[in-house]
Amino acid sequence: MEHNDDEQNMDAYQQMRWEHYLDDGDASAPLASNVLARLGLGKAEPVQGTQAAQWLIDLNDAAWPVRVAAVQQLGMLKEDVPLEALLQALKDEHSNVRAAAARALGMLGPRTPIEPLVAALSDSEWPVRAAAALALGRLSGRTPLEPLVAILNDLDASVRVAATWSLGTLGEQAPVEPLVNGLSDPAWLVREAALLALGKLGERAPVGPLLAARMDEDATVREAAELVLQRLYPKLSTGTVEDAAATPLAQEMGTRQLVQSNGHFDRRKFSWRQLIPSKRRPFPRLLAAALAMLVIVGTVFSWLAATYRLPAPASSYPTPLIKGIVVTYHGGTGQAYQVAWSPDGKSVASVQADGTVRVWDAFTGNTISAYKGSFIKVLSMVWAFPHSLLVTSEGADRRVQVWDVLARKSLLTTTPLPGIASSSAWSPDGSIIAFDGGNNTVQVWSLVTGKLVLTYQGHTGRVTALSWSPDGSEIASASDDTTIQVWNAATGHKDWPSFVHNDAVAAVAWSPDGKHCAVATVRGLVEVWDNPSWQVTSIEPTNNDWSNLSRPLVTAIVWSPDGTRFAFTTADGLVQVWDTETDQRIYTYAGHSKQVNIVAWSPDGTRVASASNDGTVQVWPNPSFTEKGRLR
Amino acid sequence: MIQGDEDILALLATDLDRHYELLVSAYSRRLKAFVLRQAGSLQDAEDIVQEAFVRAYYALMGYSAERVLALRVRPWLYKITWSVYCNYAERSKHPPLLPLDLSEGSEIFEREDNQSDQPEVMFEHVESRRELVALVDSLPQHYREVISLHYFEELSYQEIANIFSQPAGTVRVSVHRGIGLLRKAMEIRKNKVSDGA
User: Fold this and answer.
1) Which are the contacts of A358, defined by CB distance < 8 A and separation ≥ 6?
2) Does the global pTM surpass 0.90?
3) B151: which DSSP letter?
């Protein structure tokens, strides 16, 4: 149905309605005046110093609008403004006066006192807190970071909006993580403000959360996300929101009743309890006590098991024990094959054969949340920002999908693959995903455009592992065809001749600084290559316990965040940790009973989480050593 | 003279503080009427609209000039006002309106192209505009609101849906049902007049 074009009728109707309810045609005047007074935006003009005496007197007037006007006028004196008077107004009994004072103080440039404004962030009234937050954002170079980050948790949405704006003004100094957290705020105005603030950060703005925001339940937020993405990626088309929003994770999980007809997920109706059976059922006391004993015994056993099982390598290093508590997670069912740390190092996400992504406490092993999907397999996980856990999965229809699990949004759905995918890797900025296409090819898809970037066809065997160079320019692909190939991620052009081994290659990983590339063959040969010379700088240790005949299948290689170590996982249940400074295998973790599929280093590198076919994910300390090889 | 939205936005993009009054003046009465239909108290409506404008200002502070110029300010202001009203309703323990349920087999869609549903046609059937006001006001609250926003504030179904956080389909059905109720009310009134004659 089209709009009514009879404007005359409409105008008459509107006018009549207003006459019906309101006094007269000028009824907006008092309301407008009050609004402007509350914001300290009256029609003030700059005054001379000689007139300032009257404004100082007016600061003590009984009527708050008079006091607000006085504050506004005094603020316009700039260099001559009586600072004490404004500071006094900041303690006025009326919140509108205090807000006006905060606003006026923020306009004083270098003379703006910071401490009173920080104190005003604790005011009992939200307009004062918001005005103070805005004022602090105008201090160009002097804006205090911590108070503004703290007030992002304010109960009032407008205060959070103001603090977000102020943090966005910090440019390169702006903290990314709190702004990304703002994208999950319950108030759409805050989510929008966070997007716009992130848009000012240029390349520092993480693309994954921005893409997820493109599918926000609120249209205004989605518009802002499009705006920011178009600004940051002007050469790219960002596609349509509706298409992507039509297949949220909820639909995949069979919870269609939770999805509104416009394709948006209704958070208010959603409860994970609908998907995951509650485990908090009443147990008889004896049974609970028995379970507690089992847990204690299991923990002790795990700790005892976390020792060096193999003899010491042929080096000067002794055989130290791994000290500290080993946390074993038993929350899932079946083989564990994906694991990722939260950015704060407090939580771990893991995937097991039951197809559920579980987030759990890294210190207690308690499940925090669980996300059930209908996918056959999770190919990779990346948790770069607190509220953005991205999962690449393959469904029964052989389409690869990318989910923002915590936001419960689908970011990408590919066309069906010709075969079954087995590996994938994210570009460093999280905007592009590469995965094995199932027919000896590698497909590269952009999350920004939702389109296929290229298909790499250089291999003649199954692609087993992929790794991006840290600058995102190249991809190293390992294959059953015994080669490792390094090619341009934008063009698919092979930058280097293939590196050929005697055996199928099982793992490849670029070091964080891009200077090395670690590779492993199915027969357990581990090498580290230099970039760009591509000379082998170190190979597997020649210790006698690891003969060619007994070398186990290497399943994955993962570098520590600082690039000084890398861990490779093996089919016989071990995790070997290699030190790149000494070119030595420095210890082995032997807490698993079956093949270890993958490990993830905690963000600070002090702990490692390993996922195994024994059905557990274990978190264990990554020990540091003294120069003499003793544990620190 | 009330300036157009584009003119106001262009001025806000250049100097928000200086020109914010224009936005407040242009929309305060509309928003007040909007809230009054919900809150029922003139003083409450006044307070809610004031707060909405204050919050809108803080939101605009974070907008770039580009964002301001691209803003569809009318639905945006209604949306903020509705949020403030919902908070008010929650505090005063008068919960805001709940979305209407969608039932199968509704005859509403069959009437979509019925010319008599068009408000301008309906205007012809009322003897005075004040009568139409009374008729619209007699509608259940939710119908009253969506009809006003759609036909008289010229907001699209999607824009109304964004304000109320409802699916656009729900809004569409509400508008059609409201029109249907209006027509029935008019028929009843007409019959009463005929009987009286």
Assistant:
1) A329, A331, A332, A349, A350, A351, A352, A367, A369, A370, A371
2) no
3) I
Cα A546 to the chain's mean position, in Å? Answer: 40
For the domain with range A285-621, which CATH number is right: 3.40.50.2300, 3.90.280.10, 2.130.10.10, 3.40.30.10?
Answer: 2.130.10.10
Name the average pLDDT for chain A.
76
Beta-bridge partner residues of A327: A619
Q: Supply the range of the domain harboring residue B139.
A: 109-196
d(CA B3, CA A176): 40
> How would you label A192-203 residue by residue, b for 16+ Cβ within 10 Å and e otherwise?
bbbbbbbbbbee
Q: Is residue B24 part of a domain?
A: yes
How far apart are alpha carbons A36 and B177 in whole angstroms? Answer: 40
Chain-chain contact of A32 with B24 (C-beta, under 8 angstroms)? yes
**A12-174 is classed in which CATH architecture?**
Alpha Horseshoe (1.25)
Three-state secondary-structure class, residue B128: coil
Q: What is the pLDDT of residues A570-620, one digit of tens each?
A: 888 888 888 888 777 788 888 888 889 999 999 999 899 999 988 899 998
Which residues from B are below 8 Å from A6, CB to CB?
119-120, 123
Nearest CB to A41; choose among B20, B158, B166:
B20
Residue identified by tokens 């199968």 is B104
Distances (CA, A) of A99 to A142, A437, B158: 20, 59, 36
CB-hemisphere CA count at 13 Å for A103?
Answer: 30
Contacts of A134 in chain B (CB under 8 A): 58, 61
pLDDT tens-digit profile of A350-372?
998 888 889 999 988 888 888 87
φ and ψ at A555, to 5 degrees? -100, -30
B64 touches chain A (CB under 8 A): yes
* Contact assignment for A192 to B32 by CB distance below 8 Å: no
Closest chain A residue to the Cα of B66, Cα to Cα: A227
Q: Which of B60, B91, B122 is the last residue of a domain?
A: B91
Q: Does ipTM come in above 0.85? A: no
Count of C-beta atoms within a 10 Å radius of residue A555: 24
